[in-house]
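Slack export, channel: ligand-projects

TW: morning all. Re-posting the request from yesterday since it got buried. We need the structure predicted with the small molecule present, not the apo form. The ligand is pyridoxal-5'-phosphate; the SMILES is in the block with the sequence. No rush, but it would help planning for next week.
GE: picking it up
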Amino acid sequence: MNSDVFPAVAAEAAERLAAYWRALAAAELPVVPPGAPGTTLKALPETAPEQGEELTEILNDTWSTIVPQLVHWQHPGFLGYYPTNNSPASVLAELVTAGLGVQGMMWSTSPAATELEQRVCDWLALALALPEHFTHASGHGGGVIQDSASSAVLVALVAALNRASDGRWRQHGTEGRHRVYCTDQANSCVPKAARVAGVGEPVLVPTLHGTLTMDPVALAQRIDADRAAGLVPAAVVATVGTTSTCAIDPIHEIGPVCRERGTWLHVDAAYAGSAALCPELRCGHDGLEHADSYAVNAHKWMRTGTPCDVLWVADRHALTDAMSAAPSYLRNRATDSGTVVDFKDWQIPLGRPMRALKLWYVLRAHGLEGLRTVIRHDVRLAELLAELVENEPGFHLVAHALGLVVFRRSSDEQTHELAARLADEPGLLCTPTTVDGRPALRAAVGSPYADEAGIRRAWGVIRAHAHAAC
Ligand SMILES: Cc1ncc(COP(=O)(O)O)c(C=O)c1O
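GE: finished. pasting the full token output, ligand included:
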């Protein structure tokens, strides 16, 4: 493999990506691929080639075989799930990161990778107006880039279990005594993390009627009852921006409940956390000073390609006491000096790519003001969509917050029928959910190419299917 060919093929890949992004912006592609299951498998040889092939040929095959069978997550008609958006700055940084090929598990394995990560996590903490103790500069806590909100929650639970057991958890596990609390609106990654951490299913705290947010009084009662029964309430996971309806748990009330009882509070702000870049959209910030950890997916709504979740902790030692591992083959002078951060002790994997570079590129290329403009733009488009839903006979607005609009038709049967029709619609992707036991559809605005015309086009498609159905 001759690295001399790299500049030309990299330039060709960049050209192709730029053309792809133009086609997305013009909505020239479907959102959802046409192929049946197995289409791509059939197109690929069953064994790897014995002899190396030209990179240009592989690039051609990417566009002829792979791209047509992708769901185009950056498409303006992609309204499903929450967005996973990116930007040229992020893509460029990923190329440079890959080319540099460093592995920054410890400060000593790439000092600049670690220190850049410390700095960008602090930048973001300040930009999001997080409590000062979440920054590295404070000397107390700090931020670390994880791959996902799921990993962030798992790491937080491990730290919580370690703290709640004074480290005994390391030898004895949870012995069935530790409890984790959340609501039934928490993302599925929360019960999964609780299972993986050995706690089993979390305790589901009731939600307040009509809001789908955690009832802090019920939480306090449940924790107190569990403690009285000899159990250990180790952690509460609250959500700022639930997946189903973007509901926001009242951190200002949950925080003191946790603080008074010594229970770890993790705040999952995977989606809505980015909105805190805009002062007027800091909807879940009150009480954050009580949180032990907080996580946001920069890869959802901050133009930073996936994966890029940032987890902050208020007390870095609470995390590293639980996560550190120091075999002799990782010993080095910098670690022994105790003056550096080794991010391997802030996450589950040992090795780690240099993900901070893409956040650095994005924050510098867009500037905080540029990212605020993106978020405000998407919020305005969601307002337009919510208005269109509200003004349409036979449609009901179920929830609307930030970039998310949740709606249903008059009867559950009609909603199911609309969902089924939209599932076959190539030009649009919405996702289903259940709210208060009834079906609904979610539309989340967040494509880099979202604009008013695209939202009106998407709404036209939804309306047309609804009318064709009834
Ligand atoms: C509130 C919330 N938490 C966690 C997650 C899971 O995120 P990840 O895929 O980064 O694990 C999501 C995904 O949409 C989410 O909406």
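GE: first-pass observations. The chain has two domains: 102-353, 363-469. The longest helix spans residues 356-390.
TW: perfect, thank you
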